[in-house]
């Protein structure tokens, strides 16, 4: 079996007592079982020559973590400006939010090259390399340019835009060509994979082969959908246990019998938060009878505050939530509780089980694991209702949710009204259909399916693959 080398911008090193998030848990479990190296950014910016050029190595079981600092300039240009100011909105087709600066693109490519230089001496001949997400699109080509012949897989956690949208960024062809140095390129949905294949053909001149593969410069590249999964059974147990903990009890007491509508997101322009508040406002305006019977708790954990659009979002949400509360609130009831502080995984799981409605309305989302977690967290005897954006990758699997267009305030208001009035048998039927689609999936299964596909594509390229 090949040693697995995972490369991602963020690396979560499991430290004693700390519980890592979904993806880290999934990849850690995979690597702990087969041993591996996880390489990426340390999460720190510094101008110290040693910590920006020599990886800090930590061994944890059979997994080795190697991380480096970015310089302050790299952090600004590569992480803030290009990754999150250009690529993130581009991938989500929000081009009006996109900034572009040639200098940031150059810095982005330079960081991808520099990380490749640092990774190179850590690689072994039997490695299979799995690169993650939009920060590292240029890395497959950078590694090949340094003579790496190992199988390289790439997985994009975000959506992938149509060729027209993609062409709105200068040098789109270069970005696609860099990615085509991988052997396997994975996406969350078939739609994203199709958008990529169409772009690779139109913008970079790749030939589309039957079965979804691409051919360029005599090499075949496999393209496919690998929807990210959670561990539903484990999350269900966590939520059940958390429903008795003090955080959940305090929340329950504070609701005093009202129905809880819950949103849990990073505070990010793609999450549809402005539109979501507008939808809730529409509900309050048009259904006065519901007013004192519900509370909307929106957890919008602060994120990427160096990017202008995230600051504007924070200001807008503060203003909108203040206006909702001052217009509809009373001395003993507030319709909305907005907080920019995240909660622990256990606390959120407990809140989810308590919530009569899970409101998940991103403008666009690669997958959205919150939607899957909300389903897993429910009490099967008295489950809540998932309201889900039809533009989240998760909607392709969770069709039994109430699917909405996230920009339509009336549609959100109608769905909330419908969910608040929904009979228990209908809630149970819908929940059961949702649970059936996720209950046998696992994060580990997702990781394995990608790694197995990578091994297969490495073999078909005549690469060095050991099982
Ligand atoms: C999304 C991206 C991840 C990223 C995460 C948090 O889920 O797909 O790659 O790590 O957001 O964002 P941050 O900028 O804090 O890493």
Number-wise, the strands total: 16
Shape descriptor reads globular
- Write out the CATH superfamily name of the largest domain: Glycogen Phosphorylase B
CATH architecture of the largest domain: 3-Layer(aba) Sandwich
**DSSP helical segment count:** 17
Q: Name the CATH class of the largest domain.
A: Alpha Beta
Q: Say which molecules are bound, naming each kind only once.
A: 6-O-phosphono-alpha-D-glucopyranose
Major sheet: 10 strands, mixed
EC number: 2.4.1.15
InterPro entries: Glyco_trans_20 (IPR001830)
Enzyme class: transferase
GO biological process, one term: trehalose biosynthetic process
Can you walk me through this structure?
This protein is α/β, with parallel strands linked by helices and 467 residues long. The protein has 2 domains: 4-229 and 444-461, Rossmann fold (3-Layer(aba) Sandwich), CATH 3.40.50; 232-440, Rossmann fold (3-Layer(aba) Sandwich). Helix content is 45%, strand content 19%. The protein has 17 helices and 16 strands. The chain has helices at residues 22-34, 49-53, 72-91, 102-119, 139-145, 163-166, 172-179, 190-204, 232-242, 246-255, 273-286, 308-328, 345-354, 369-377, 409-421, 424-438, 443-460, and strands spanning 3-10, 36-45, 56-60, 63-70, 127-132, 152-155, 184-187, 207-208, 214-216, 219-225, 259-266, 294-301, 336-339, 357-360, 385-389, 402-404. A 10-stranded mixed β-sheet has the order 3-4-2-1-5-6-7-10-9-8, sandwiched between helices. It has a 6-stranded parallel β-sheet with strand order 13-12-11-14-15-16, with helices on both faces. Helix 1 (22-34) crosses helix 17 and helix 10 (246-255) packs parallel to helix 13 (345-354). The radius of gyration is 23 Å and the shape is globular. Mean pLDDT is 95; it is low at 463-467. It binds 6-O-phosphono-alpha-D-glucopyranose. 6-O-phosphono-alpha-D-glucopyranose binds at residues 10, 133, 157-158, 303-304. This is Trehalose-6-phosphate synthase. Its EC number is 2.4.1.15. Belongs to the glycosyltransferase 20 family. GO terms for molecular function: alpha,alpha-trehalose-phosphate synthase (UDP-forming) activity. Keywords: Glycosyltransferase, Transferase.
């Amino acid at each position: 079996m090949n040693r697995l080398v995972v490369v991602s911008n963020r690396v979560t090193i499991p430290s004693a007592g700390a519980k890592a998030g979904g993806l880290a848990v999934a990849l850690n479990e995979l690597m702990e079982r087969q041993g591996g190296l996880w390489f990426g950014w340390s999460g720190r910016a510094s101008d110290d020559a040693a910590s920006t050029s020599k990886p800090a190595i930590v061994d944890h079981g059979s997994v080795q973590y190697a991380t480096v600092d970015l310089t302050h300039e790299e952090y600004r240009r590569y992480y803030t400006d290009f990754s999150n100011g250009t690529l993130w909105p581009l991938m989500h087709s929000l081009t009006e939010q996109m900034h572009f600066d040639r200098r940031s693109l150059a810095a982005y490519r330079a960081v991808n090259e520099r990380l490749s230089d640092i990774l190179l001496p850590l690689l072994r001949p039997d490695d299979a390399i799995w690169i993650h997400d939009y920060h590292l699109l240029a890395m497959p080509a950078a590694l090949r340019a340094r003579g790496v012949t190992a199988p390289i897989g790439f997985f994009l956690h975000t959506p992938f835009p149509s060729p027209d949208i993609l062409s709105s960024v200068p040098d789109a062809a270069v970005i696609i060509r860099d990615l085509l140095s991988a052997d396997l390129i994975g996406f969350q949905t078939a739609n994203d994979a199709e958008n990529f294949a169409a772009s690779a053909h139109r913008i970079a001149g790749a030939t589309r082969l039957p079965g979804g593969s691409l051919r360029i410069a005599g090499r075949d590249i496999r393209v496919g959908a690998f929807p990210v999964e959670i561990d539903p059974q484990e999350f269900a147990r966590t939520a059940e246990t958390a429903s008795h903990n003090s955080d959940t009890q305090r929340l329950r007491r504070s609701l005093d019998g009202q129905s809880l509508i819950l949103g849990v997101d990073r505070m990010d322009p793609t999450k549809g938060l402005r539109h979501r508040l507008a939808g809730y406002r529409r509900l309050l305006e048009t259904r006065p009878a519901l007013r004192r019977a519900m509370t909307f708790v929106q957890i919008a954990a602060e994120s990427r505050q160096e990017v202008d659009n995230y600051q504007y979002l924070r200001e807008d949400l503060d203003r909108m939530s203040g206006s909702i509360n001052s217009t509809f609130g009373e001395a003993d009831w507030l319709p909305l509780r907005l907080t920019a502080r995240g909660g622990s995984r256990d606390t959120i799981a407990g809140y989810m089980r308590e919530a009569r409605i899970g409101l998940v309305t991103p403008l666009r989302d690669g997958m959205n694991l919150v939607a899957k977690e909300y389903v897993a967290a429910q009490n099967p005897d008295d489950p809540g209702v998932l309201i889900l954006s039809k533009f989240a990758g998760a909607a392709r699997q969770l069709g039994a949710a109430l699917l909405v267009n996230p920009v339509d305030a009336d549609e959100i208001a109608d769905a909330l009204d419908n969910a608040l009035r929904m009979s228990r048998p209908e809630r149970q039927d819908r929940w059961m259909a949702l649970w059936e689609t996720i209950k046998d999936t696992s994060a580990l299964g997702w990781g394995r399916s990608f790694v197995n596909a990578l091994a297969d594509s490495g073999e078909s390229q005549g690469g060095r693959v050991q099982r």
